[in-house]
Amino acid sequence: MPGALRQCGGMKLCVHELPRTSAGQDEVPAAPPRCGHAAPGDDLARAVWLGGLAAPVPLCSGLGRCGRCRVRFHDLSVAPDPLPEEEEILGPGLLARGWRLACRRQITDAMGPELHLDVPAPEKMTVMTTAAPSLPKQEHLALAVDLGTTSLYWRLIAVPDVREEPAPDDFSLLCRPPLPVSVVAEGHDLNPQAGAGADVMSRLAVASAPEGRARLARLVRDHLAALLRQQTASLPGIPVERLVLAANTAMTDIFLDRDISGLCAAPYRRSHAGGCGLTVEGLPPLLIPPLPAPFVGGDISAGLLRLLADGLPRPLLLADLGTNGELALVDARGRLWLTSVPLGPALEGIGPQCGRMAGPGSITRFEVSPLGLACHSVDGPLAAGADVQGISATGYLSLLALLLRLGCLDADGHFRTPASPLARRVAPPPQQARTGLRLPLPYGQWLAAADVEELLKVKAAFSQALEALLRAAGLAAADVACLALAGALHKLGVASGQIPMQNGNPSTEQMFIVSPLFGFGGGSMANLFSTHPPLEERIARLQEMSRQAR
Residue 39, Cβ neighbours under 10 Å: how many? Predict the structure, then answer.
């Protein structure tokens, strides 16, 4: 196991966090370093981030693409010689000042008994907090958490008290119609385990040893405890009486510090079925939704419960697309079909060379303007000279759909020379870099040929999983009445285009909440004649169906 998981032994490792504005320059660290221990042979990135010596960042699992694991050696004499990928990503200026990619490095004896490193400050995640309400005495607080492999979404809610309070291990609280609740605060953050890698299997590799699993469990538990302290500080005397944690089976068992050996090799098996109440030290009474299968977890079961309570038409398909894709199909007879597929972290903005999780400073949507590409962030159109730090997954999806429509990409994802003058302004000729072809984009960003390939792999993997699920259920795509994309309605709606479905048929488009075909047409003129309702209208329909079902 990495030395970062040990309490003593080896060298002393001290990590200094630079100010947010430094962007890898030579400014003085803003605070004293965090120090721990590491040993020769330890992975440097894991020693830094799993050791708790730096705030978590969304790493690309050692692919050497994202550059977020960059560290600066204070002592240039012990900095290792640059690697080709470091020359490409960091450039000669940063390399000369001692910056290297930690994911490609190991601790060595040559680094001495004490190693000091700088790291850039982490990306700030979004937290939306409402004004703390004056809660009636008959209400109590509950914290709902969606713990993904990459992200952690949470919502603090005020729930009316009920006369017949269920026992702590009674899951019926989640199985009955939704209670009227008010949101006190909500937000999202990076999963603090991200230093172990961006995918499920890298997380399981660390958790396969008891000390690694305990460390990963503690990272999330401490994060939730700190979140509760922060959010309830303005609500004195109102305790949080329940914590509901929805996660895939691997993330659930790691959080509970349970044996995960059944998830590491085929035939895969669960250690428990979930659907129960538990006690975790330092946290409120915990509810775990049912875990239907080894790689289909409580996030899917919780989503299905809500969709079924809302009375959506069947056959109903729920797709939770993230680092791991989980699909659940409920047919007209009420039978449940499940499948899962590894998608990688590209849909979280991790892996592509300019990839970034959605948030301030990221491009979330591309559009065509008379001058070329127009870029948008979560706050609206980007002004000239804006500080852009990367491209979110929705930004990449909208860009690929736009380039495909303009003839700048072919159906196989290869760059092509477009015919129209506007398309040539949108997509200048690709440039050859050490890592392959790059299409220059505004604000110093670019689209690499390797990025297109990664996103097409996601599309292919999802398509295969969907086809397998429909085939097992004996259904055609046209038979599905509704497709719900878990947690992605508004996020996908921000993207004005996506990679269209191959050989898409408009006759089956009504099954989708988010149109799978807008890559074939697009543009405002096409929308005038479209019979596919806009996303906002479909969300409104779902909300109306939910009200009628109560």
Answer: 17
